[in-house]
Design brief:
Blueprint (H helix, E strand, L loop, with lengths): L2 H20 L9 H11 L3 E7 L7 E10 L2 E9 L4 E8 L6 E7 L10 E6 L19 E8 L10 E7 L9 E2 L5 E2 L12 E9 L9 E12 L5 E10 L6 E3 L11 E10 L2 E9 L5 E8 L6 E2 L16 E10 L2 E10 L2 E8 L3 H4 L2
Antiparallel strand pairs: 1-21, 2-3, 3-4, 4-5, 6-7, 7-8, 8-9, 8-10, 11-12, 12-13, 13-14, 15-16, 16-17, 17-18, 19-20, 20-21
């Protein structure tokens, strides 16, 4: 081998090693076999029925968030009365029977969020079969919420606000920040969220997969239209170091069909797999529950099989959507928003038929 050839080989070796060192391998998709195992673990084929009805005629109940504290279960949820959203709280000993305690975010006047305050408790333990306790940050409990000033059902340009509380188990008004932390009018708004922003979920990521300890998943609508000229909702993410300043992550949404709705993410961690429960609507008939899986909270593999929940009963014959799913003492509880003959209510499906085995 001559000198020139040896030099070429050395050069190519150095270049290739440099490329290897600088390369950022994309996390692999979650295999189909693993996705199937996740589906088998989380599926809830037994519909228990309505657990939280409308509080009064003409009202609608929506968006459950379930957590545990002091040996009891608590659920925050939102109520629409024709004017806008307010956030309420309920209590349960067994996840089946719920007692409403009152409001934690009510209508106000002359605020950016005067008539829309749809709250979602943040930093709930995402471990599957875990404690479901809520983590404090800076000695306070936190919640993100959908906020807006225009009256009507999700009317006007909505944004995401942050609220805090010393005790999230009491029907006492949460302390809200005076301005939204994410808005469609932000300078760094993306094509998928520059129209309006809806529900959000904030988790604590100990591994800092994104570089941030706090990660927010939210669904939003951009000005871009689908093939039929309609707007659509996608699920995106943002990160924060302090729960107040949030940075959008990525130039594209995580989950989208470019039509209809993908929204209301909830994150659970099953061993080394992150599971995103979410709902889909109108990219096929109705509204229904889906899930996706990830190894790093950023790259997601969408489940292509059967819906987790779909309309089958009179009380959810129109829509079955907006999930909150937990596992407790060997039973999976899937709370969801049901729309049907009983109005807009919160219903429950389980992995075991609790109507037969008792409470």
């Amino acid at each position: 081998m001559n000198r020139t050839c040896r030099f070429c080989l050395i050069f190519l070796f150095v270049v290739n090693c440099s490329l290897c060192l600088n390369a950022q391998p994309t996390p692999s998709l979650v295999p189909t076999t693993v996705m199937q195992k996740i589906y088998d673990e989380v599926k809830t084929p037994y519909k228990y029925g309505v657990v939280l009805p409308e509080p009064a005629e003409g009202t609608m109940v929506d968006s459950p968030t379930v957590f545990r504290k002091r040996g009891k279960w608590w659920m925050t949820y939102i109520v629409f009365d024709g004017k806008g959203y307010e956030t309420w709280i309920a209590q349960s000993k067994n996840l089946l029977e719920w007692k409403t305690l009152g409001k934690v975010m009510s209508f106000t006047e002359n605020d950016w969020d005067a008539t829309q305050k749809a709250g979602y408790v943040a930093l709930v333990d995402p471990k599957w079969g875990g404690t479901y306790k809520v983590k404090k940050f800076r000695k306070q409990y936190w919640a993100s919420y959908l906020g807006g000033a225009k009256e009507g059902y999700e009317a006007g340009q909505l944004g995401i606000g942050m609220a805090t509380a010393k005790d999230i188990t009491k029907a006492v008004e949460w302390n809200r920040r005076s301005q939204p932390v994410l808005s469609a009018s932000d300078q760094d708004a993306r094509w998928y969220d520059n129209e309006t922003i809806y529900k959000s979920l904030v988790i604590h990521d100990k591994e800092r997969h994104t570089g941030y300890p706090f990660v927010m998943y939210y669904n939003a609508k951009g000005k871009q239209k689908d093939a039929k000229g309609n707007g659509f909702e996608s699920i995106a993410m943002a990160g924060s170091h302090d729960m107040v300043q949030w940075t959008r992550l990525g130039e594209d949404p995580l989950i989208t069909r470019h039509t209809g709705i993908c929204g209301d993410a909830q994150i659970a961690k099953i061993n080394n797999i992150y599971v995103m429960f979410y709902f889909g609507a109108f990219w096929k008939p109705g509204a229904f529950e889906r899930f996706a899986c990830s190894y790093d909270l950023v790259h997601w593999t969408d489940w292509e099989g059967d819906d987790l929940i779909a309309p089958t009963e009179p009380y959810d014959e129109t829509y079955a959507h907006k999930p909150w799913v937990i596992k407790w003492k060997g039973v999976v509880y899937h709370f969801y928003n049901a729309v049907g003959q009983q109005g807009r209510v919160i219903a429950l499906a389980t992995s075991k038929d609790l109507r037969k085995v008792g409470k």
